[in-house]
Design a protein that fits this description.
Keywords: Chromatin regulator, Chromosome, Methyltransferase, Nucleus, S-adenosyl-L-methionine, Transferase. With 383 residues, this protein is of the alpha+beta class. The protein has 13 helices and ten strands. The strands form three sheets. Strands 1-5-6-4-9-8 form a six-stranded antiparallel sheet, covered by helices on one side.
């Protein structure tokens, strides 16, 4: 099995594209706009040009996530009862409604306290693309040879003709190629896992979903990383900008140290090479990778200059968080929302004891705690 993961917008569907691909794209676009963008203030790439106007429901949704994150089945139901979502689904067929509910659960699992990772802003790649890029960051230690709990994506098959449409458009999504089961696209939180030549996870496929499994221990604060293939970024990944290539002077960094000219510093040289790669095609017959634009995708680049700056003084004071502070606050927006949802500092998800036993919240929190005890395993989708 070979893996190719690409992050950019799917082309508009036509008569030649499958209903399942079209439907999954619509579901993912709407659900990610609600549970990723609206809640966390992000702007992730969408596979389809469709979304609901739920800005007026932002506080309602965040409060709902805060109350029901211990029981994602109840959280699913609460979200489905929102007027905008009910009106949207009312016009859809039964199969679409079923797909929407299943895919919604893939995303609501992100908020369960047992989930050991979060979708986070990727400052490293964004410093080069000047666009918002994202990654998966571990919020707990994850042992080796262990499924990354609740890190899922929904699979749908695509035909060779649909595959060619994606190739011709130079606008792929997350693609999984297998000699035994054909080509599939997967959408969901797992698609935010970036590439590194020294990856710490690999994909595991079930009937309708994929999940990530660790191949070595991942520490709290580490990025969850896949390997997209040995030739994904050119022959022998010679154009790869991952963190491991930077540390080992490999890939795109192989000849960086030869830049001694004052007028051509290493940073500028690598940025020029990166921008050149954005405009080029990277094709490989070994992993079915196709032309892609990294300016629209997620990878794992860090700022190429290690010079000290005053940036640290502007960053959130929470451990492992590298987001910028809110005005007149020691925390960033992400940490502020995290505190609203979990009543705790990022990245802790268990509620503090003094919060659980306050008189006003005792009944609700006791119920949620009981649900958490009973549903930790049931909330993890597996087949």
């Amino acid at each position: 099995m070979m893996v190719a993961v690409v992050h950019s917008s799917l082309p508009r569907t036509s008569m030649s594209t499958s209903t399942s691909l079209d439907h999954l794209s619509q579901c993912d676009s709407i659900i990610s706009s609600i549970l990723i963008d609206l809640v966390w203030g992000f702007n992730v790439v969408k596979p389809a040009q469709c979304r609901l106007d739920l800005g007026h429901s932002k506080d309602t949704i965040i409060d709902m996530v805060s109350r029901l994150n211990y029981n994602t089945a109840r959280l699913d139901q609460g979200l489905l009862e929102l007027t905008s979502i009910k009106d949207y689904l009312r016009r859809k067929r039964i199969l679409f409604k079923s797909l929407f509910k299943d895919h919604l659960h893939v995303y609501t699992l992100l908020f369960h306290p047992s989930t050991p990772f979060e979708v986070c802003f990727n400052r490293r790649l964004s410093s080069l693309t000047h666009k918002e890029e994202y990654s998966l960051i571990a919020t707990k230690n994850i042992p080796s040879n262990t499924p990354v709990k609740n890190c899922l994506a929904t699979l749908t098959k695509i035909t060779p003709k649909q595959d060619q449409i994606l190739t011709d458009s130079n606008n792929d999504w997350s693609v999984l190629t297998s000699l035994s089961s054909g080509t599939r696209i997967f959408l969901g939180p797992a698609r935010f896992a970036n590439h590194d030549c020294n990856n710490n996870c690999q994909l595991q496929r079930t009937k309708d979903h994929i999940n990530l499994v660790t191949i070595r221990c991942i520490r709290k604060g580490d990025e969850i990383l896949l390997n997209y293939g040995p030739h994904y970024f050119g022959e022998n990944n010679e154009k790869c900008f991952c963190r491991s290539c930077e540390a080992g002077c490999m890939g795109a960094f192989r000849h960086a140290n030869s830049a001694n000219s004052v007028n051509s510093p290493v940073d500028n040289q690598l940025r020029t090479r990166f921008n050149s790669y954005i405009r080029s095609s990277t094709n490989s017959s070994t992993n079915h990778s196709r032309s892609r634009s990294l300016s629209s995708g997620s990878s794992s680049l860090t700022p190429l200059s290690s010079a000290p700056s005053c940036l640290d003084e502007m960053l959130c004071q929470n451990n492992h968080c590298t987001n910028e502070k809110l005005p007149d606050s020691a925390e960033c927006y992400t940490c502020d929302i995290h505190r609203r949802i979990y009543k705790n500092s990022w990245p802790m998800r268990s509620r503090p004891v003094d919060t659980i036993h306050t008189p006003t919240n005792q009944n609700q929190d006791s119920e949620d705690s009981a649900v958490s005890e009973d549903s930790t395993d049931s909330d993890f989708m597996s087949e």
